[in-house]
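*** Residues and shapes ***
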Amino acid sequence: METVVFVQPLIALIAGIIILVMPRILNYVVALYLIFVGVIGLWPNLMHTMPH
């Protein structure tokens, strides 16, 4: 089985978490957006790897 890492959603999640650790008012908005984009980007792949 081949494992494929989707870089953009993963970077968005990591950046979002880092920004939430060091918060600013604007950074909350950016962090939530990055986390949202990361989860949406990874969601189809997570569903694909789960056993039926």
